[in-house]
Design brief:
There is one protein chain. It contains six helices and four strands; from the N terminus they run E-H-H-E-H-H-H-E-E-H. By secondary structure, the protein is mainly alpha-helical. Strand 3 and strand 4 form a beta hairpin.
Length: 187
């Protein structure tokens, strides 16, 4: 991380469920272990997708082990940044490193403007801001995901009301209607 070299970054989220490969009900996760496991899976996924694209679009033989043009280009970009946010707002090591580098760059550029004594003090300020923003955003998005999942499970009666012409729920950009828990309990 750092410099001006082109990089590929992949942002993934990991959610705790009974179907999750990374979290399990039967074991308490070691701090960061599920996020680290998900992050380590990203490079292999990229390599497989590049190889599949070479086969599909570049007429590469399935049994040919030499990299095709897409796989070669992927390799030329170096390591894929493995940015993962977990169920409990924990982050992967690449995400932490990216935040550190961003805070350092922001501190060096803006330390006078924000009234810091030096760029190191400003780096700490930006680090705190960035970590809080990412953590809060992850927590808010997880709560929205949970609300939508809950509303889908509980919304059957409200869907029937909506079909009968009664106003219920809210519609997203795709025309799907979501129902609030409050609406469910009022019916």
């Amino acid at each position: 991380v750092g410099g001006t070299q082109q990089k590929i970054a992949e942002l993934k989220t990991v959610h705790c469920s009974n179907k999750s490969k990374y979290y399990s009900k039967t074991k308490i996760p070691i701090s960061g272990a599920p996020v680290g496991a998900r992050a380590r899976a990203i490079p292999a996924e990229y390599k497989k997708n590049a190889k599949d694209a070479d086969i599909l679009y570049n007429n590469k033989d399935v049994n040919d082990t030499t990299p095709g043009p897409i796989e070669t280009r992927l390799e030329s970009l170096g390591k894929v940044l493995e940015l993962v946010v977990g169920h409990f707002s924990e982050g992967s090591s690449d995400l932490h490193e990216l935040v550190k580098q961003a805070a350092k760059a922001a501190g060096e550029k803006h330390w006078k403007r924000i009234g810091a004594y030096n760029s190191r003090e400003a780096r700490g300020t930006f680090m705190t801001r960035f970590v809080r923003k990412i953590g809060i955003t992850a927590a808010v998005q997880l709560s929205i995901l949970r609300r939508k999942a809950f509303n889908r499970m509980m919304g059957a009666d409200l869907r029937a009301q909506a079909e009968a012409g009664e106003e219920a729920g809210e519609e997203d950009n795709n025309g799907n209607r979501y129902y609030s828990a409050q609406q469910e309990y009022q019916s």
